Structures
1.
Amino acid sequence: MTQRKKTKGQLIVLSGPSGVGKSTVIAELMAQRPLYFSVSYTTRQPRTGEQDGVNYNFVSRQEFERMIADNELLEYAEYVNNYYGTSLKVIREKLDSGMDVLLDIEVKGAAKVRQSCPDAIFIFMIPPSFEELSRRLHARNTDNEDVITGRLEKARQEYKEIPNYDYLVINDKVSNAVGEIESILTAAECRVMNRKNIVEGDYAL
Amino acid sequence: MTQRKKTKGQLIVLSGPSGVGKSTVIAELMAQRPLYFSVSYTTRQPRTGEQDGVNYNFVSRQEFERMIADNELLEYAEYVNNYYGTSLKVIREKLDSGMDVLLDIEVKGAAKVRQSCPDAIFIFMIPPSFEELSRRLHARNTDNEDVITGRLEKARQEYKEIPNYDYLVINDKVSNAVGEIESILTAAECRVMNRKNIVEGDYAL
């Protein structure tokens, strides 16, 4: 489908339990449409294979607390004794240039973005089943059994926040989840309020 | 993309100026996904090539007024001295069976549906330009110049109703318009409120 010109990008917030496959879906989505993925800041240690500036911007606790104090963050949260947060400046620039911006943040951070950016698109991604989530966490081979048990318990808590999201996407298959998110983004572009410039401008009767 | 099972269909209202190409877009959409097109009732004369029960259910003024009196219509309106209306019974059955139902109705009828079915999806379709709309009306070769002038003036009036719709679709090219409507319908299926059964049922953690 033809991409139509836009005056302002859309802010998309994606949440979902650890292990649901957000990274894979995001990578596939970015291969299919212009999209800026906002790399979060964190104080946690990199996992094997994670790169600074790609998966996260890894910073010290001291540096993170300076960013909090200087109001440089759109949202931040502490989770399993580490800070996770999103820088505001880059996001603003991208949105103003007409680029869609995707944030991969957990439910507490999403709640904060909902307060400051109610027009953002809030998507929650779930696995097809609890058993499948457990299988994916084990297959990832990065966490011990206690950490996995903690992540599964955390997932149950996160599910309670689903009613606060706009959309629920099921990652039973990457292509399904990507297709659903693509449809959600295209539909959002078609909203009357996002096409005011069209009715009043180029396409006016 | 895999079609997921649904418990209830969605009601979709499509409006747009005469000549914008709604019929062509609807036919293409129905070829691509399960969709019930609600055939309207009208008291106007069939145009060349129009079939009773396909394009419209053509009925007498007397019969139409009986349907009004018996509350058989979801909405109806009078337009250029003819009645146009939508039967409620068939729509209810289709929606309950999980089928999406599309109504092609003008702005007055849509306003009535909005009152009784606020959860329906309201889509307005526009041509890429006024000149193009005029060209399409002439190419259709069914109306004289006075009727076309009337339709164009009517289109200008209808545009004032766009802010009451959820989505604006541009029919510059049939495949674009169909793609946008498909995305709108898929996104609607992904709304959290439409997937409650998923979170609480088969996909529950």
2.
Amino acid sequence: MAGKIDAAARAAALKDLKGWQDAEERDAITKTYQFKDFTAAFAWMKAVAQVAERMDHHPEWRNVYRTVEVVLTSHDADGVTQRDVTMAREMDRLAGAQA
Amino acid sequence: MAGKIDAAARAAALKDLKGWQDAEERDAITKTYQFKDFTAAFAWMKAVAQVAERMDHHPEWRNVYRTVEVVLTSHDADGVTQRDVTMAREMDRLAGAQA
């Protein structure tokens, strides 16, 4: 199991990703997605859920109508790992032009 | 559009529902569901999402692995309406023996 990425790698990853930032008061990264409506938001969540199952790595997320707030962290490593960066990238890819 | 239910109707509805309670600091009702794992939690969310679309009434919900925290309120009525009670009942029905 890979451990936490170091500060430089994390900064580089955040710079590379769009709209992701360090979470407040937690060792995690976060992003809020906005979709056209609930249908679009939940369709995206369904696609992400499949990735989560495949990776065995699950987001913390909160959905209110067309908004989805996501927090990614790796509980086993007690912080942000490469798996979180990979998941973030997949989420952005699946959101495509929608978010 | 139906308005807020009165205190007596709300108390009766909460008594009838299992595990639902008044939300803190908001005019809403809330429940936390626990499922077997993420797959079961998200399968339930998919079923609820279909009901939400059909009712055009959407939950606020937060999923962390096998847990889903739900908050129901009717923004147009600025409080809890019969639609929230109906949605709560549907959620419980769909959760069946799982939650």
